[in-house]
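Ticket closed. Logging final result for Polygalacturonase.
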Amino acid sequence: MKNLFFVLLIFVRVIASSTFCPSSLTFNVLSYGATGNGHTDDTQAFLKAWKDVCGATRNYVKLLIPDNKMFLLQPLSFKGPCNPATIEVLLEGTVTAPERVGVWKFLDNRRKWIQFSDISGLVMKGGGQIDGQGAAWWNSNDVSNRPTALHFHNCKDVRLSSIHHKNSPRNHISIDTCNSLEISHIHITAPEESPNTDGIDISGSSNIFIHSSHIQTGDDCIAINSGTSSVNISDIFCGPGHGISIGSLGRNGEDARVEEIYVRNCTFVGTSNGVRVKTWRGGRGYARKIRFEDIKVVGVKQPVIIDQEYSSVEMESERSAVKISEVSYRNVKGTSSSDSAVELSCDPNVGCSEILMEDISITKEDGSVATASCTNAHGTSSHCNPIVPCLN
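Final structure:
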C-alpha cells in the first residue's frame, strides 16, 4: 500500500506539471503572405511574423517555416529584445538568398544576410536548410562586402541544432558578443575552393558549446577570435577546410584576449591544418589556457601548428606580440599529407610558454617518419612521435 501511494503521488505530480506547463503559440510565415515558391521575395512576410512573435505575451512561442517550401529572403534582421522567454524558430523548409550579387538589397551593414540581435532564449531547429547562394560572390571582385549568412549579435541562451547550412558568401555562422550559445547536430557544406567560407566564427563571446556536427568548407571549420572565452568544442568532423583555429589574433596592433578553450574528440580529414593558433606580428594581449585532446588527423597538411609569423608591411618592425601560454596537446594521432607533423613557430621577443605535448603519434601517409620543428617555444613533452626538440 505504501508503494502504491508513492506511485500515485508521482503520477499526480507528472499530471500537474504537464497541466500547468504553458502551451506554445505558433506563428506560420505562410499566414503572413509568404509564398515559399523560391522566386517571390518573402522578406516582408518574415518580418511581419517576427513582429508578432517578438511581441507575443506567451512565455513560449514558435515561428514556423514549413517543410516542402523554399523561401527567398533578402538581407533582414530579427531584432529583440522580445517578450517571450523562449522563441523557437522551427526551420523545416529552406530559406535561400538571391542567386545574383546585383539583386541583393542590403541593409545599412552589407556584411550580413540573416541576423538575430539582442535576443534571449532563442531556439533554432527543424531539419531545414539555409542556402547562402555563395557561388556568385566567390567569383566577384567585391571581396570586402561578401556577407555572412547567419549572424548572432548580443544574444543570450541560444540553441541552434539540426540545420543544414550551405554555400555562404562568407562565414556561414558568426557569433558576436553572445553569452551561452550551443550549436549541435548541424551540417555545414561549401566547396573546398570557396574563399573565406568559415563554418563558425566566434568573436567577443563566452560560454559557447559546439558539438556533434560536420563542417566541410573552404576556410576554417571553426575560428575563435579576440574577446572570446570559455569555449567547448567536441565531436566535430572537419574536412575539407582549414581546421579549427584560434585566431588570427592581433592584426593591426589589436589587443587580443582569448582563454579557456577546450577542443576534444575531433576528426580532421584532408584539411590544410588540424589544430592551429595563429597571430599577427605587432599584436598585443594573450591566448592562454587552451586544450586540444583526443584529436584524429587523416591526411592533414599541418596537423599541429602555432604560427606567430603572420605579418604586414606596417607591422613587421613592431616588437610586440600576442603572448601564447598554457597550451596543451594530448592524444593527437594520425597522418600528415606533408613532411610536417608539428610546427611551433613562436615570436622571438615574447615566445610561447607552458606548452605541453603528451601522446602524440603522427606519421606521413606512407607510414614514414614526419618532422617536428619549433622556434622560441618552451614547455614539456612525453611519448611524442615525432620528438618535439624544444620541449624535451
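Confidence is low (pLDDT under 50) at residues 1-22. No further action required.
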